[in-house]
Amino acid sequence: MAAREAIKNHYETVEEGPVETLSFSGAAMPVTFSGTVGLFTPAVKPTAPVAVLFLSPWGFEEMCTRKFWRILAEDLSAAGIASLRFDYAGTGDALDVSDDKGLSIWSETALAAAATLKSLSGCERVILVSQGLGSAIALDIAERLHAVEGIAFLAPTISGRFYLRELSVWSKMIDESMGLSEGQREQSDGIWVAGLKMPEQIAADIRKLNLASLSKFPAPAGLVLTRPGRPSDAEFANHLKELGGRIEQAAYEGYDELVSNPTIATMPLGAGRRVVNWVRSVAATLPAKTSRKATRPARAEPLVGDDFRETPLRLGDGDRMFGILCEPTGVRTGATAILLTTAYDRHAGWGRTTVAMARNLARSGIPSLRFDTANVADSPPQPGAPEQVLYSEAQYRDVADAFNLIEARKLLPAFVVGRCSGGYLGFQAAVHDQRCSGLITVNPYAFHWDQNNSVDEALRFVPRSLETYGQKFLQVETLKRLLNGSVDTGSAVRNILTSLLRRVAQLRQPLLDKFSFLSREHATVLKGFNVLKNRGVEISLIYSAQDIGLEHFSLHFGRSGQGLQKFGNARLTVIPDADHNLTPAPARAIYVREIQTMALRLGARRGSAQAATGTAAQVKSQKYVGYQAP
Questions:
Q1: Which of 50, 167, 202, 499 is the most buried (most CB within 10 A)?
Q2: CA pair distance 303, 319, nearest whole angstrom
Q3: Which long-range contacts (CB under 8 A, 24 or more apart) does 329-333 make?
Q4: What residues contact residue 387 under an 8 Å CB cut-off, 6+ apart?
Q5: Measured in whole angstroms, how far is the alpha carbon of residue 202 from the centre of its chain?
Q6: Do the Cβ atoms of 341 and 262 come closer than 8 Å?
Q7: Hey, is 605 helix, strand or coil?
Q8: 24: closest CA among 63, 110, 82, 72?
Q9: Other Cβ atoms closer than 10 A to 57
Q10: Distance between alpha carbon 507 and the CA centroid of its chain, in Å?
């Protein structure tokens, strides 16, 4: 794949003005249109008279492909081809809308995106690259654009009915992988996957889809990447050939590894090369065009919703990361929340929860910044940084750049909020950056990570608490999986033994000292907590009752958290009936309420020195509170 550093310059010709050459590097250029956010990646050296519009899949599949789309866009740019990625109405960073129009509302967003791409790139003709449900959108808008030179179908959704049944199975598998009990799963009507509900009218329209009945192919060329074990994909490709299209067909190598889990997803670089080469081959059949006229600049105006205003932006040296600044349209009353991503999930959050959280905070007068750290979703990697960025010290710089932005916009004080790996990063950022006034960390797996340990192995064999292992062992389904060999018993046994060792070490300090790797971790963690205590940084620790992170917490502070009492700046909340992702609505409500409380308390420090002194005294007086949340 072409090097990301190849993106250097962006040309722009305004129709009634002179040519303006812009410096371009780092993350794609955010633009806003039709109530949504797009990411425009200009060509390094424009050589093709065509631009690419990406049409995403939906839900969990979209989350898994987010980073893959960015890599494709960067490689197309290096090949001289501009592109645009965007969120459909009511998804991702887009404003919420009514679903009365059904699937057509997403087609309307796509049509607006195509018009925006033409105005930004100066290219009149486009190529559509789609995956999953995006394939149906591609065929719908191609009929109306009349300027589509080719359509790529990656793992196309051919039968709407089969697709919805597949989503139902997918949803159950995802919930099982997260350790959700049947009672914790979303029980309401409709299509739910990974915390996202498909709008009912859109689901009704999808049920009617049947691409196999297509009677005309609306483009000269096509590419179909077929999934393993899906004969309908190959049949669809053959059907397109019968319709007279210049159709190429190839295997979608790496598809299963891409969509299994965004945390451990492997980018299908071979399939990516196939797509880029196909786009280039289509572009080569078109007459060369030496001049382009962009009719609008690549600029993002704020999206204004119900009592909030969101500004898409780039941050960091060289504008290397992408994020969204969400601010209240009314009076600001609280400190700014820096909302960190979890693992490789995009900044919109699991089930789009971070978007909902940010907007609810803004309605309470609390600004926030959500962004993708380097090499996550829409932010390219740092040069020289490891490919595996989770639990890496390279991410400290990302959070420092977020504080730089907040400081430059006069939005201090600020605090960090993160879950799981984001909670670990939040703790480390709070320790390292004196501008951090508070920390909320949810279900952090650990507070210290030995950089010699393999993150990849830890992610593939995520341990669970002893209680969770015990409950699962008593389930008939688990026993069946053990018997048929679908459970990695070796990893499970290692995880159980590690948990037992930590439990024993909690009981007797001499045992903790005997195991050097545990004693080093313990000393490092306590040192960090002392740093935050001495700086008066307010700390809120939130755990699900059976989360594996409690094993690590208990190692340092005891099973009941009694060791936390000497840290008067810290507070502990344990939520009884919640999973690692805080899926149940009551658990999420506790989380949001804790953020609001801290933001308003820290926000009171703004103004006079007297107010700052009073707030510090208030924080200091809040002793350790360990309780089971209702």
A1: 50
A2: 20
A3: 329/304, 329/362, 330/365, 331/365, 332/365, 332/366, 332/367, 332/603, 333/364, 333/365, 333/366, 333/600, 333/603
A4: 375, 381
A5: 23
A6: no
A7: coil
A8: 82
A9: 23
A10: 39
Hey, how many other C-beta atoms are within 10 angstroms of the C-beta on 548?
Answer: 24
Identify the CA nearest to 337 among candidates 414, 432, 280, 283. 414
Residue type, 172: K
Provide the β-strand partners of residue 368: 326, 337
Distance of CA 17 to the CA centre of its chain: 39
Q: What b/e string do you get for 350-362 counting C-beta neighbours within 10 Å, with b at 16 or more? A: bbbbbbebbbbbb
- 193-236 pLDDT, tens digit each: 878 889 999 999 999 999 999 999 999 999 999 999 999 999 99
147-173 tens-digit pLDDT: 999 999 999 999 999 999 998 887 787
> By CB neighbour count within 10 A (0-12 exposed, 13-18 middle, 19+ buried), where does 484 fall?
exposed
DSSP 544-576: ETT-THHHHHHHHH-TT-GGGGG-TTEEEEEES
CA distance linking residue 426 with residue 221, whole number of Å: 48
Q: Is 72 left (phi over 0), alpha (psi -120 to 50) or beta?
A: alpha
Go through 393-427 and write b for each residue having 16 or more CB atoms within 10 A of its CB, e for each that does not. Answer: ebbebbbebbbebbeeeebbbbbbbbbbbbbbbbb
**Burial of 223 by CB count in 10 Å (0-12 exposed, 13-18 middle, 19+ buried)?**
buried
Helix, strand, coil abundance in the chain, percent, nearest 5: 45, 20, 35
Q: Is the pLDDT of residue 131 over 90?
A: yes
113: Cβ contacts below 8 Å, ≥ 6 apart: 33, 34, 36, 38, 53, 84, 86
List b or e across 504-540, with b for residues whose CB sees 16 or more CB atoms inside 10 angstroms: ebbeeeeebeeeeebeebbeebbebbeebbeeebbbb
585-611 tens-digit pLDDT:
899 999 999 999 999 999 987 653 334
pTM: 0.85
pLDDT band at 183 (very low <50, low <70, confident <90, very high): low
From residue 561, give the alpha-carbon distance in Å to each of 526, 558, 570, 628, 630.
Answer: 13, 5, 11, 12, 18
Residue 211: how many other CB atoms lie within 10 Å:
18
Task: Give the tokens for residue 452.
Answer: 């010699």
Model confidence pLDDT, tens digit, residues 18-63? 323 333 469 999 999 999 999 999 998 877 899 999 999 999 999 9
d(C-alpha 193, C-alpha 242), whole Å:
35
C-alpha neighbours within 13 Å on the C-beta side of residue 478: 14
